[in-house]
UniProtKB/TrEMBL annotation:
The record marks K91, E387 as: Influences the redox potential of the prosthetic heme and FAD groups. Is involved in NO detoxification in an aerobic process, termed nitric oxide dioxygenase (NOD) reaction that utilizes O(2) and NAD(P)H to convert NO to nitrate, which protects the bacterium from various noxious nitrogen compounds. Therefore, plays a central role in the inducible response to nitrosative stress. Gene3D superfamilies: Globins, Nucleotide-binding domain of ferredoxin-NADP reductase (FNR) module, Translation factors. It comes from Salimicrobium flavidum. This is Flavohemoprotein. FAD binds at Y192, R208, Q209, Y210, S211, F388, F389, G390, P391. The keyword DNA-binding does not apply. Its cofactor is heme b; FAD. Keywords: Detoxification, Dioxygenase, FAD, Flavoprotein, Heme, Iron, Metal-binding, NAD, NADP, Oxidoreductase, Oxygen transport, Transport. The record marks Y36 as: Involved in heme-bound ligand stabilization and O-O bond activation. The lineage of its organism: Bacteria, Bacillati, Bacillota, Bacilli, Bacillales.
Length: 395
């Protein structure tokens, strides 16, 4: 679906915004880093809605800088940013972002532009950006209004951990049922849920998104979570470690409704190629289990070795291929993999058809490699689909 956006900005305002594009290219990340710092100082309650790990490593400021830059480039026709806005809006709805949050963001974004650029901006530029921000915010608010109306529920709903299963050295699955009964939501294979974690010792709520790792139509929701490594200064694995070590069967987890625009197109007729790396297997496993009886499906999974290969018992069939970067002696003895090393284009050409719908998910390096390989092979853009959690990287 393409969102049509009719600009209400006059020509002078649009010209001013476009004139700032080179400045944003140079100083955008400094502006957005300062923006988050100032906003969180004055509104610490908003830390409950942001992934603070992404803040510490600079991913969120970088993503916002890229979004502001794209909006400035396309200010004559904001329809050009609508596809990206749709994806961001999915995550906003999953995080329960509301219209009243946008004025706060706008206030601190304008302050950051002024404070970082100083005399390089005048009142006319600030006024123009205030008007532009209002229009950009309205694009998101309108998209999100529609998505809220379509969502299975708003906010968070409690689910019981019915079962907890260790899938590998790093991945554990959680089988979830609605607290006090109730129906399970509809979702598309590939979508995710939001999880709200209040962890003892941490002052702010932690929000994370996890792909649903089983096919729709089961009597439960399932997420399969990798234990992420981190440090005291940068607790990258704060929520995953809490889930692995502290959350037990019978505990309650608040979930937001399934969301996400990365999902299987079940109306397609072409064969399906699923390419996963590490825990990126989770949304693709949902797709695989939904479609494997209906279409030709090729499942390519890459992992470091068999010890960390999650959900491997659920991979089957003559069109499933496993690649281990550094297979163990046990892997070699068991014949548990088809290729050592990496998924490369020369090999991929020999095992999957070119005329297919491709879906891929995994670590950032894996994603870049798959995207590059598929484009080098000449796969049409409309046949390439991927999921990348967190702010979009340079995939």
């Amino acid at each position: 679906m393409t969102t049509q956006v009719t600009s209400r900005l006059d020509e002078r305002t649009r010209d001013i915004i476009k004139s700032t594009v080179p400045v944003l290219a140079e100083h955008g990340e400094a502006i957005t880093t300062h923006f988050y710092k100032r906003m969180f100082e004055d509104h610490p309650e908003l830390k409950n809605m942001f992934n603070m790990t992404h803040q510490k490593v600079g991913k969120q400021p970088r993503a916002l800088a890229n979004a502001v830059y794209a909006a400035a480039q396309n200010i004559d026709d904001l329809s050009a940013i609508a596809p990206a806005a749709e994806t961001i809006a999915e995550k906003h709805v999953n995080l329960n972002i509301q219209p009243e949050h946008y004025p706060i963001v706008g206030e601190y974004l304008l302050k950051a532009i002024k404070e970082v650029l100083g005399d390089a901006v005048n009142d006319e530029i600030i006024t123009a950006w205030g008007e532009a921000y209002g229009e950009i915010a309205d694009v998101f608010i309108q998209i999100e209004k529609k998505k809220y109306a379509e969502s299975a529920w708003t906010g968070y709903r409690n689910f019981n951990v019915e079962k907890k299963v260790k899938e590998s050295e790093e991945i554990t699955s959680f089988y979830l049922l609605p607290e006090n009964g109730g129906s399970l939501p509809f979702y598309r294979p590939g979508q995710y849920i939001g999880l709200k974690a209040d962890i003892p010792g941490y002052p702010y709520t932690q929000l994370r998104q996890y792909s649903l790792s089983d096919a729709p139509g089961e009597e439960y929701l399932r997420i399969s979570v990798k234990r992420e490594s981190g440090t005291d200064e940068l607790p990258a694995g704060l929520v995953s470690t809490w889930l692995h070590d502290q959350v037990q069967e019978g505990d309650v987890l608040p979930l937001s409704a399934p969301a996400g625009d990365f999902y299987l197109d079940e109306s397609g007729k072409l064969p399906v190629v699923l390419l996963s790396g590490g825990v990126g297997v989770t949304p693709l496993m949902s797709m695989y289990k939904k479609i494997r009886e209906e279409r030709d499906v090729y499942f390519i999974h890459a992992a470091r070795n068999g010890g960390v290969h999650g959900l491997k018992e659920e991979m089957s069939g003559s069109r499933t291929y496993v690649i281990y970067e550094t297979p163990s002696e046990e892997d070699k003895t068991m014949g548990a993999f088809h290729k050592a090393g990496y998924v490369d284009l020369d090999w991929l050409r020999t095992v999957v058809p070119k005329e297919a719908d491709f879906y891929f998910c995994g670590p950032e390096g894996f994603m870049r490699a798959m995207n590059g390989s598929l484009h080098e092979w000449g796969i049409p853009e409309e046949n390439i689909n991927y999921e990348f959690f967190g702010p979009k990287g340079n995939i």
